[in-house]
Amino acid sequence: MPRAAGETKAHVLRVAGELFYRRGIRATGIDLVAAEADVAPPTLYRIFTSKDGLVSAYVQDTHREFQDRVASVVEAAGPDPRDQILAIFDTVSGQVASERYRGCPMQIALAEFPDADLPARRHAVAAKSWLRETLAELTGKLEVGDPAEVADHLMLIFEGLHASGLSLGPDGPAKRVRGLVEMIISSASPRPDSAR
C-alpha cells in the first residue's frame, strides 16, 4: 500500500537521518538514501528538490526532536531551574553513552558545511543559538548576578561534552559533566539583591 505524501517525507527523513549520522552527510549520496528508503530518486527530488534541501530538512528535523526532548525533560524535572538544567545535561550524557553515538548532529553539520550561505549551516547555527537562549532563560531564573555568563559557561560545557564524548568516550572527561555543571551553578556570584 503506497504511503501518503507526508508519510513518505517523514520516512525518507528518518532513513536519511540514520545514514547521514552513521556515514556522514557528504559521504551519503542521494541514490543511497532513495534505495534505503525504497523510493525512486525522482520521488525524493519531488519532495526535497535537491540534496541540499534534504540535508536542510534533516538538520531542522533533528533540531525539532532535540527541542521536544529538552521540553520534556525540563518539564519532568520540576520547577527548580537547577534541576531543569541538570536534566538537559543528563539527557545529553545519556546520548553520549549510547553505542551509536557519533557526535553532535549539529556539530557534524557545521563541520561538513562551512559555507555560511548554505541552509544546513544556517539551521545548525540556529539550533545552537536556540540552546544558548534556552540555557539563558533557565539561568535567568537562578539567583545569580550574571545569568548570561553562566549560560555561556554551560554552553561551553555542552559543546565540550559532545566533543569529548566523541573522542574519549563516555568514560573519559564526559563522565564528569554533571559535577562540573553543579559547580558552575553553585559557584556563580549571587544577584546583589539575593545576597544575604
Structural account:
The chain has 196 residues and is mostly helical. Helices cover 71% and strands 0% of the residues. It folds into two domains: 1-49, Homeodomain-like (Arc Repressor Mutant, subunit A, Orthogonal Bundle), CATH 1.10.10; 55-190, Tetracycline Repressor, domain 2. The longest helix is centred in the N-terminal third of the chain and has 26 residues, at 51-76.
Which short descriptors sum up this protein?
Arc Repressor Mutant, subunit A, 2 domains, 196 residues, Tetracycline Repressor, domain 2, transcription regulation, TetR/AcrR family transcriptional regulator, mainly alpha
What is the element layout, followed by pairings?
Elements: H1 5-23, H2 30-37, H3 41-48, H4 51-76, H5 81-97, H6 105-112, H7 119-139, H8 147-168, H9 177-187
Helix pairs in contact: 1-2, 1-4, 4-5, 4-7, 5-8, 5-9, 6-7, 7-8, 8-9
What's the rounded overall pLDDT mean? 94
Number of helices: 9
Major sheet description = none
What percentage of amino acids are in beta strands?
under 5%
Q: What is the CATH architecture annotation of the largest domain?
A: Orthogonal Bundle
Q: What is the total tally of β strands? A: 0
State the secondary-structure class. Answer: mainly alpha
Total domain count: 2
Helices and strands, in order, run as HHHHHHHHH
Task: Label the overall shape.
Answer: elongated
CATH topology of the largest domain: Tetracycline Repressor, domain 2
Q: Assign the CATH class of the largest domain.
A: Mainly Alpha
Unreliable sequence segments: none
Fraction of helical residues = over 70%
Radius of gyration: 19 Å
Keywords: DNA-binding, Transcription, Transcription regulation
Protein name: TetR/AcrR family transcriptional regulator
Organism: Actinomadura luzonensis
